[in-house]
Amino acid sequence: MTAMLNRVIVSIDGLDYTVVSEEDVSHIRECASLVDQQVKEIKGATPFSSMTATVLAAMNLAGKYRREQKSCDDLRAQVRDYAEECAKLRAELAKRK
Asked: What is the mean pLDDT of residues 76-80?
């Protein structure tokens, strides 16, 4: 079964882009809004061109994504450790009965 593609026009740094994606329309708009906000913040604080500001915005968002990914990986490892500890404690309790 083929997923439905959504076609959405978004505005980033005053330019319109047509995005075609399987993602929800609201998700696409939220992502575009995030990028637009980052570009505006960079351009408001620096004399950089639109292209440089866009690349820096992408780098900022990619950095945030990687940090969040690492945080998720760390949480998964912690949950795995807790599950192993729980299993050991259950086994110990079962031996005592």
From this structure: 98
pLDDT above 80 for 4: yes
- This prediction has a pTM of 0.76
Whether residue 28 contacts residue 9, with contact meaning beta carbons closer than 8 Å, is answered with no
Q: How far apart are CA 69 and CA 75, in angstroms?
A: 10
State the DSSP code for 90: H
Helices (H) and strands (E) in the chain, counts: 2, 2
CA dihedral 29, 8, 26, 45 (to 10 degrees): 0
Among candidate residues 47, 50, 16, 52, the one with its CA nearest the CA of residue 32? 16
User: Quick one: tokens of 81?
Assistant: 């450790």
Share of the chain above pLDDT 70, in %: 98
Residue with tokens 């404690």: 89
